[in-house]
Amino acid sequence: MSAARGWLRLLGSELRLIIGRRRNQVGLGVLFGLVVMVGIVLKVSAMRHPRSPSGDLIAAVAGNGIFLGFAALSIEIALFLPLAISVLAGDAIAGEANQGTLRYLLVAPVGRARLVLVKATSLAIGALIGAVVVATAGVLTGAVLFGIGPPTSLSGSQLGVADGLWRLLLAALYLAAGLAALAMIGLFISTLTEQPIAATVATAMVGTLFWILDSVPQLDWLHPWLLVDRWLAFVDLLRDPPFTDRIVAGLWVDLAYAAVFLTLAWLRLRTKDVTS
Amino acid sequence: MIDAMKAESRRSVRTRAWALVLAGALALAGIAGLSVRAASADPTLPPLTPAELLGKVAAADVPGLSATFEQRSDLGLPALPAGVGDDETASMLSLLTGTHTVRVWTAGDQKSKVALVDGATESALIRNGSDVWAWSSEKQEAVHSTLPATKRPSPTVSPTEAIRTLLTKLDGTTDVTTSGTGYVAGRAVYQLILTPRATESLVGQVRVSIDAEHFVPLAAKVLASDGQEAVGVQATGIDFAVPNDSIFAFQPPAGVTVTARASSGKGEKAEKPKGEAPKTFGTGWATVTVVTMPTTGTDQQAKALLDSLPAVSGSWGKGRLLSTTLLTAVITDDGRVAVGAVVPDALYRALGSR
């Protein structure tokens, strides 16, 4: 019991640290601001060219603000959300090592396994916060600029407003799972170095590399195994009834990556010489 | 002290082993979730002859189903450069390569829906009684047409009779067998195998997998003569519960283009392509079709594409050869096109015997 309480206390202090950090707050602000900017750009172009019939997410925004939530996710998942999670993950171990606080964390009666688990959990929560903030920014901006009404599904049926918002939340949760898996890769990289910037850059590069490999048609045999391959499948939630095959497969891939890299991170940290 | 350290290290070895096992198991679970091709033994089913199996398919009465199919093509076509042709042809061509997902629902014989799931778009064809809707989310367009209220013509021959005639007719060109069983989308299936007798045919085999309980086809594959799968449609999931009526109730959403089209059937095929009527040579699987193309405009792109094909020549003339795993075409310099699911030699022969 006390172990669980100690675990929660450690997680609480870790989360306070992540949320309290000024650079992380600024990062969230940037994620939010980008969505507002996209919304304004879309509003201006919608006023200039009133309604051209086209069916992509971006075009649908002009008719209904809820779609700005989905469009925001699809825009930021390509670069900004992975970048943000790379910053958090790079900081996780290497940041502590760099500041010399890792030593003290381990001097306190905290097992290394528990430390890795707490770091991983807080990164997953960070991924969740990032995705939900982007989706929320989209809906809020969309509501102010375009108004909100019952959205039309990709299958041509009318969904309720509550149903639309619920599906947006599911989409954010799905992408958060993918970002959390990327964060586990970052956590592992973070145990390899004492330079948080190096770990951050390496993680962001891994994320970008996935996207690049995923866009090369000659490598289509590799695509199903890439972490990012099914991230954009969140639009399947906009079908009626929702199409879950690709999303479920995507969650399995996320789980496989997370399991492998979380274990690697732990194996690395438990034999690591912590000198600083 | 030393004992304590030993115990500690032993414990850590054990936890490490456990962690490795756990991570391995989770990774494997992820992989298994990806490729649900369970390598389980084939099911044991009571044997059926082709005639019996087809009889059951004809008599099958499925009240409703919802299914997901995956269509794959590997025709050995070169990846087309982006921007060839207009949007329409590009989307047609895209069906010839890669993988596509189709969702299917049916309820009775009056209600059905087929939806092509593609990236962030969806095209669907919905039939509800006499109403037929074609929906495209990409164009934000709904086309409505009404089927003429016709009664089904009552069959003059019994299904068993018809199947027997069909099999006799097929026998000249095709070897029809039921061979083995298997699983498709987790369901036991019979395999119906059609093997062309013509040696010139590029089609090695056509395999149709038929559900052993409800007798609906769940998969169809065309194997090229080298045994590789060239085109295949396969169910990845199927549910024989009658789907909810709301699936078939299509209401065009506000703000989309709605077109009403007169009842289909007449007036659609009135326009005949110009040029000579196509001639056919050979029979069955080895059929070759020769068409004389109307002299087309000199499309630079099309010409460049054509020039990239290997040049061939013979007593029949000169031309370019397009060879895929399943189809071969020769485009001659004097504007004739010979197409067939055959080896190139059969095309040359057809071109020579004009």
From TrEMBL, chain A:
TM helices/strands, residue ranges: 26-46, 66-94, 115-148, 168-189, 196-213, 247-267
Keyword Transmembrane helix listed: yes
Alphabetized Pfam families for the sequence: ABC2_membrane_4
Keywords: Membrane, Transmembrane, Transmembrane helix
Coiled coil: none
Signal sequence residues: none
Entry keyword annotation includes rRNA processing: no
Protein name: ABC transporter permease
Species: Micropruina glycogenica
Upper lineage: Bacteria, Bacillati, Actinomycetota, Actinomycetes, Propionibacteriales
TrEMBL record, chain B:
PANTHER family, A to Z: SPORULATION PROTEIN YDCC (PTHR37507:SF2)
Protein name: Outer membrane lipoprotein-sorting protein
Organism: Micropruina glycogenica
